[in-house]
Amino acid sequence: MKNFLLDDKNKRVMIDFEKGNGLVPVIVQDYQTLEVLMLGYMNEEAWQKTQEEKKVTFFSRTKNRLWTKGEESGNFLLVKSYHIDCDKDTILIKAQPVGPTCHTGSRSCFNTEYNQNFLFELERIVNNRFEFPTEESYVNRLRTRGINKIAQKVGEEAVETVIAALNETEKDFINEASDLLFHLIVLLREKGLSLEAIAKNLEGRHQ
Questions:
Q1: pLDDT tens-digit readout, 118-135
Q2: N or C: which end of the chain has fewer CB within 10 A?
Q3: CB of 20 closer than 8 Å to CB of 2
Q4: CATH number for the domain including 43?
Q5: Would the CA dihedral through 148, 150, 156, 161 be positive or negative?
Q6: Which UniProt keywords apply (predicted)?
Q7: 63 and 124 assigned to the same domain
Q8: Are residues 126 and 161 in the same domain?
Q9: 201 and 126 together in one domain
Q10: pTM of structure
Q11: How many whole angstroms separate alpha carbon 116 and alpha carbon 56?
């Protein structure tokens, strides 16, 4: 298998393994929340295996062998996309983590205090509630009442957010704004849309 990636224009971009004595650093990022999960290294063999099996495989510098993340714990990193930097010597992999990434049990090896992109994690949770509905799920109960009720809830939460911003405490405002964003995510999912679609639209407007 060739050691190349396809860029946005479907042109082949070769990976420079020679620059780092046969190894290139690999950053792994959650494909939905965009949280950085870990950093590892790959040689050409690890890179080829990662492409073939769609599970992130590194070259362990301490064990001097290939190492597939999750081979013992089952906490695999399932590859969603590959990207390469401008110097062609670093790979970014966006992956779906199966369980915690770090051996300590944390979701990220960088042990951040909280997930700054939790809105994307919340979107993933809402999507899961849609795909695997249960009676005790609030999302499922809301959804069964139809899109009119979901849209109504967004409107109600928007009004309550405005009232809290004008007349209530900062904590109240944060709580109401959180309720608004949650119900908006549910409405987006009901319409078959995502936060990514909104982000792209906002970016386009900014340009």
A1: 888 899 899 999 999 999
A2: C
A3: no
A4: 3.10.20.810
A5: negative
A6: Amino-acid biosynthesis, ATP-binding, Cytoplasm, Histidine biosynthesis, Hydrolase, Multifunctional enzyme, Nucleotide-binding
A7: no
A8: yes
A9: yes
A10: 0.69
A11: 24
Interior/surface letters 46-80, b for 16+ CB within 10 angstroms, e for the rest: bbebbeeeebbbbbeeeeeebbbbbeeeebbbebe
Q: For strands 65-68 and 57-60, give the pairing.
A: antiparallel
Q: What is the CATH number of the domain that holds 124?
A: 1.10.287.1080
Query: Domain boundary residue among 62, 97, 132?
Result: 97
Q: What is the dihedral sign for C-alpha 90, 94, 99, 100?
A: positive
Q: Are residues 92 and 162 in the same domain?
A: no
Is 202 a domain residue?
A: yes
Distances (CA, A) of 114 to 110, 111, 118: 11, 8, 8
Q: What is the pLDDT of residue 8?
A: 45
Radius of gyration of the chain (CA): 21
**Rounded (5°) CA angle 96-125-36:** 40
Q: Would you say 130 and 144 are in contact if contact means Cβ atoms under 8 Å apart? A: no
User: Structural domain of residue 10, as residue ranges?
Assistant: 4-97
Total count of domains within the chain: 2
